[in-house]
Amino acid sequence: MGLDKWIAPEKEKKKKKEESKINSQGISNSRKKERVKETPILTKHTLICPKAKCKYQKVIVKRILTEKDKVCPKCKGLMRIK
Ligand SMILES: [Zn+2]
After folding, report:
1. Are the C-beta atoms of residues 56 and 49 closer than 8 Å to each other?
2. In terms of residue numbers, what domain contains 49?
3. What's the gap in Å between 57 CA and the centre of ligand 1?
4. How many separate domains does the chain show?
5. What pLDDT shows up at residue 16?
6. Model confidence, pTM
7. In terms of C-beta density within 10 A (0-12 exposed, 13-18 middle, 19 or more buried), how is residue 72 classed?
8. Does position 36 have pLDDT exceeding 90, yes or no?
9. Are residues 35 and 47 in the same domain?
10. Is 60 exceeded by the pLDDT of residue 28?
11. Are 34 and 4 in the same domain?
């Protein structure tokens, strides 16, 4: 019994593993990363009216708040972001 019988199949296995890694990770993986960047991330904004008589609160889930979102619907004043 020589060592050649044991060494030969080991080398073949390693080669096959490397090949399959390249095939599965290649182009499809980089495309997935690009898609994640494109999807808008929604942020939870908590707005509070600073006026003591009003104190109106609202939560807006949006990417970016607009000027209209910052206006208090109760007293028409500018709301503060918490
Ligand atoms: Zn208000």
Report:
1. yes
2. 43-81
3. 8
4. 2
5. 66
6. 0.51
7. buried
8. no
9. no
10. no
11. yes
Ligand 1 centre distance from Cα of residue 70 (Å) = 10
Q: pLDDT value at position 41?
A: 86
Residues 47, 70 share a domain: yes
Angle at 80 (CA atoms; ends 60, 45), nearest 5 degrees:
25
8 A C-beta contact, residue 59 and residue 78: no
How far apart are the CA of 51 and the centre of ligand 1, in A? 6
40 pLDDT band, cuts 50/70/90, is confident
Residue 47 has pLDDT above 80, yes or no: yes
* Shared-domain flag, residues 47 and 73: yes
Q: Are residues 49 and 25 in the same domain?
A: no
C-alpha 48 to ligand 1 mean position (Å):
8
> Is the per-residue pLDDT at 9 higher than 70?
no
Rounded distance between C-alpha atoms, residue 50 and residue 70, angstroms:
11
User: Could you tell me which of 18, 80, 17 has the C-alpha nearest to residue 49?
Assistant: 80
**DSSP class of residue 13?**
H
